[in-house]
């Protein structure tokens, strides 16, 4: 399923769907084995002839196909530095990046990838692709992923796309204790790196979905910005300080919040502490000052209410058709 460059889809819904799907499978027992693909210069290696052929299968009219071919062919590029221009170079592959059509054309180009991944599930956000299987053991998951990757490699070759094997990784999600040695997954005879954590769409996933490393990273980034905030706070008006808080503190704390706030209380408690510290810097109050007054003054939510509000917004979108339809499965399960 493609979550990139589509209405009602986002990194939040992509992460939420993947994690809810993985967690539901983990709850049933067994192992979820996943391969995170890394494509080398994916947007720049799209073959125009193959793209036109694929567009014809979407019932594009002959006139539309000719127009699209004209749009893609005969493009040149150069580099400007100050008033100097480099010689122009023509290029006959790739989709125009920075354009409106570019991302859409790329999504259509890789749209049929899931069809070759039999026996597995595929989730895509642009070229960020994860392929995963649910099995009884890691060994079985590794075998099935190796089999799937044979078909994926052939599809990539036929589509003139190139897999960066060194950056493509494998992870096994399980509630069981991590084994000393992990089974191997192979791609074209090369062994994939098996990792215990991986950053996918801005969220650090770990093998048991504890989110400890992600929370630690969020706190690290937020504290850095908070130190800068504390240093310049006396030079800022209340309005500018509030703007800094909402643009440099909150986004780091709340990015894809619905995906990782189901972590245990002890993991999330430091996040709440950092949030309260930021509130006190905003209002130029010492750490001993209670934060409830600050919340009322600046019309902000407490951390607990912020989490609940974010969850409620996503549920509202799902129930009212404003989010990807597959997410409704998980809402119905919990209702």
Explain the overall architecture.
There is one protein chain. Helix content is 47%, strand content 15%. It has helices at residues 11-27, 48-57, 62-72, 101-109, 138-158, 212-232, 238-254, 257-260, 265-282, 292-298, 303-319, 328-334; strands spanning 31-37, 75-77, 80-81, 84-85, 89-91, 121-125, 128-135, 169-173, 186-187, 190-191, 193-194, 197-200, 203-206. A 5-stranded mixed beta sheet has the order 6-7-1-8-11, sandwiched between helices. Strands 2-5 form a two-stranded antiparallel ribbon. α7 packs antiparallel against α9. It is globular.
**Radius of gyration, CA atoms, in whole angstroms:** 23 Å
Morphology call:
globular
- How many strand segments? 13
Structural class: alpha+beta
Order of SSEs: HEHHEEEEHEEHEEEEEEHHHHHHH
How many structural domains in the coordinates? 3
Q: Would you identify the CATH architecture of the largest domain? A: 2-Layer Sandwich
Q: Helical percent range?
A: 40-55%
Classify the beta-strand content into a percent band. 5-15%
Write the layout of secondary structure elements.
Blueprint: H1 11-27, E1 31-37, H2 48-57, H3 62-72, E2 75-77, E3 80-81, E4 84-85, E5 89-91, H4 101-109, E6 121-125, E7 128-135, H5 138-158, E8 169-173, E9 186-187, E10 190-191, E11 193-194, E12 197-200, E13 203-206, H6 212-232, H7 238-254, H8 257-260, H9 265-282, H10 292-298, H11 303-319, H12 328-334
Parallel strand pairs: 8-11
Antiparallel strand pairs: 1-7, 1-8, 2-5, 3-4, 6-7, 9-10, 12-13
Helix pairs in contact: 2-3, 6-7, 6-9, 7-9
